[in-house]
Every structure is written in C-alpha cells, then in structure tokens.
Amino acid sequence: MRVNLTVNGEQRQADDVWEGESLLYVLRERLGLPGSKNACEQGECGSCTVYLDAVPVCACLVAAGQAEGREVRTVEGLADGDRLDPVQQSFVDAGAVQCGFCTPGLVVAAHDLLARVPEPADEEIREALAGNLCRCTGYEKILDAVKLAATRGAGA
Amino acid sequence: MEFLRPATLPEALAVKAERPGAVPIAGGTDVMVELNFDHRRPEALLDLTGITELGEWSTTNGTIRLGAGVPYTRLIDELGKRLPGLAMAARTVGSPQIRNRGTVGGNLGAASPAGDTHPVLLATGATIEVASTRGSRMIAADDFYLGVKRNALEADELITAVHLPDAKAPQQFSKIGTRNAMVIAVCSFGLALHPERQRVGAAIGSAAPTPRRSRAAEDFLSGELADAGLWESPAPLRDSVCRRFGELVAEGTEPIDDVRGSAAYRRHALSVLARRTLTWAWQEYRAGERSCA
After folding, report:
1. Which chain A residue has its CA at the smallest distance from B34's CA?
2. Which end of chain A has the lower number of beta carbons within 10 A, N or C?
3. Residue B212: inside a domain, yes or no?
4. Between the CA atoms of B246, B251, B254 and B257, what dihedral angle is there, to the nearest 10 degrees?
C-alpha cells in the first residue's frame, strides 16, 4: 500500500508498504531517515521515539497505515539546518553521548519534556526518560544534559 | 494482509461483522509487538484511530463514558481527579511513549491477567460497552474476563467505551514490579470506597488466571465499616481489621510461580498492598469528612 505523511515539514510518500509494517521501518528503510534507531521493536527501549502529531511515540509500535495523513517529526527534524537544537547541543556539551545509539530517542523524549516542563526537577526528568534505555552512559550525563538544556531555555 | 481504516464506528462494525478475523488496532502497544516479532499474521488490521468518537469522553448523571481509544496520558491529564484509581493505574503503564498511545480499550481487548487497569475497573464497578452491527450491549467488568487473555467479546464486536462512576470517595491502586518503570505487574491491587452504598470494592491483578474481585475481603470490610458506623463517623481503622482484610485478599488469589515472582510472594505481597491501600484510602476519607464538617 501507499502511505502519505508529512515528515519534518515535508510531504512524503512511501510505496509498497507492507500492511503490517511499522512507521519506524517506513522512516528508516523507505524514506532514508536513519536517525530513529531500530532496537527492541517492542516499545521498551525508546530508541525509535518520534513525534506523531506532536506526541512522542515509539515509531516501532505505530502501524505505517496509522501515520497516513499525519505529521511526523524525527530527531532529524529538530535541528535547524546545521544549527543543532539546544537539547542536541546540550547532549554534546555535557558528554551525554557515548555510542550514540540511544541518543536520538533520548533527545526527542527530552525535547518533549522541556517543551512541557521548562524547569524539570530531577524526578521529573527521570520519569520522562524512563522509556529510554542506554547501555553506556549510566544516565548521569544524560540528566546533566537535560538540566543544561533547561538552563539554556530549550523549552522556550 | 490488509490494512483497513474505517472513518466511522458504523463502518468499523460493518467491517468487523464481515471480517471477524480482522484485528483491531488502536495504540498498537500490544498488536505491533506481535507483528514485529512474527507471532501473529492476521488477515487484516482494523485501525480504530481514525474514529473520532472512540477518542472522546463525556459525563452523564455522575457516570463517565470513557471512549475505548482515549490514551492513558489524556486519561491522567483530563480525568485524574474524577477517576483517581484508574488514573493511578494508568500512570504505572509503561513509559510516557507507551502511555501516549496505549488505551483502556486495548487493555480490555488484550485481557491479560496483568493488565494494569483491570483491578480498578473491577473495584469501581465499571461497565464495558461493546458494539456490533447487531447493536450495543453493556458487560459488567465482573463478567468480562473469562480466562487468560480471553474476554466476553463476540467475534463481531468491538469495545467502544468504558462506563465508570465519577469518584465520590477515595480510590487507590498499587502495583509491584521488578523495577520502577516500564514493567509488567508482578501483582497489583485496586481499591474503591463506595460510601453511598456502604461498600468497598477490591480487586487483584496478575495473581489469578484473570483479574478478579476479592469478594470475601470486600464483604468482610464492608460489614466491619457498616456495623461500627464508620462511614458516618470515620474513626481510624483497627489494625486487626486492616490485617484481616489483607489476609482475605491473599486467600482469594490463585497465583502462579513464574520468572517475575513466586506464587507465595504474590500472595504475601497482595496482603500488604491491600492493607496499605486501605490505610491510604481510609486516611483520605477521614480527612475529607473532617474538611466537610
């Protein structure tokens, strides 16, 4: 089947989509957007987190057909050209990036948190990032990055 | 495989009547996992997210009709005060990403013994509204869970809404998991006080083949509260009453040993959850009574 959707502000079309395919597969394999990572495929790791109509979701749990006519924003759509989003820049500056695999999902989840809660408490950050697994960082630097982004007014 | 996208409920019901094998999908948090892992290849997916009315809720005469497709996040944000027990249970589901997609309708459709919202639906006396081209009918939560992942739905029916009383008194939900978030229940417990009927609702999750009411515990506690006139003048509960309530809840379980916990642990943990949630709910009830006086 054919799926039409808006991705990062651009009207896109994917053809020959299998009916049981996920939005994640469409983004990565059909639309050439490998920022969202494919890891657990069961919504446990958060590496594929994207905005679907401004709501963060696991792209692996959205059926491709459910994205028809809807708006998707991936980690690629957060930066303004070469200029990183403050959340992305804070991850770089705080050293919150190691192997980098979980980073796109964490950046989208943190981006959403700061849009809703500009000055989150530690507990709020932990809860907001509970759906994103990382196997390198130990999370401390990720927490630092989110706090840094908050001080830079990332959610403003 | 086919992907069907009805725009209206009548259209969806017509499809389901014609194609009972079509699998309804809303938030996808269960269905997509099965597809991704090749555990299931249904003949068709019936996407319900295009049906606006399933994502709405309304109130009539003190009853809230919660559309089957309202995601947990909205339930927490919009109905947290009116459905406190259900909102508490919803807050323990998965992660923000999962709560943004998952729905009470999906929880009911999957009918897992560990589904987080079930104990609250049972304890609050919820009714499940289902529909088909033959019409709609209401199923009491008590009659809905038939077995492990089996519910009372006919092959041509879809879950359209859940009806719950607007909470007039404290409710509680408590869950044990092997970590703080993103975790399936080792066991869970829902409690609702119904002072207008002088009854207590109590139900367990993940400790029997289906979610189920703790009837003996409910009867015992309701009797104790009524006999002592505690609904009208809510004195502190005797420790022995709380303990007996917990024991009766534990006796009403039928748990299994599995990777997440032993049957003995589940039974014991539920007696503790029952006692604690009762203590919290009663404290809140007493505080409410005082502030009204």
Report:
1. A42
2. C
3. yes
4. 70
